[in-house]
Design goal:
Layout: H1 3-9, H2 21-30, H3 34-42, H4 47-60, H5 63-72, H6 82-97
Helix pairs in contact: 2-3, 2-4, 3-4, 4-5, 4-6
């Protein structure tokens, strides 16, 4: 799946069945369901799961908690626009899935 295809899936009422669980978390985030996205992300203990967890806490404005999760993800804390970070994460996850 490409980034444009993934973004097009946001028009649907449910995430594509074949995508990775972390891509589902970001799908729910993009649909405005932060709680579902957070629930999924906190259940995945990988670096990618921690990265999404960091992004979500930054999005909610909890920068201290976000910094903790960026550290757990072995990622630098970022001040990039949230939309840019969301696309960066999705693109990286889609690359892993290919």
């Amino acid at each position: 799946m490409t980034l444009p295809e993934y973004k097009k899936s946001l028009l649907q009422s449910a995430p594509p069945a074949a995508i990775d669980v972390l891509l589902k978390a970001l799908w729910f985030d993009a649909k405005g369901n932060w709680d579902m996205a957070h629930e999924i992300a906190q259940g995945v203990t990988s670096n990618d799961g921690s990265w999404i967890h960091a992004y979500l806490h930054r999005k909610e404005g909890d920068n201290g908690n976000a910094a903790y999760w960026y550290h757990k993800a072995n990622r630098p804390v970022t001040n990039a626009p949230l939309e840019a970070e969301w696309e960066e994460i999705v693109t990286e996850l889609l690359t892993h899935s290919a």
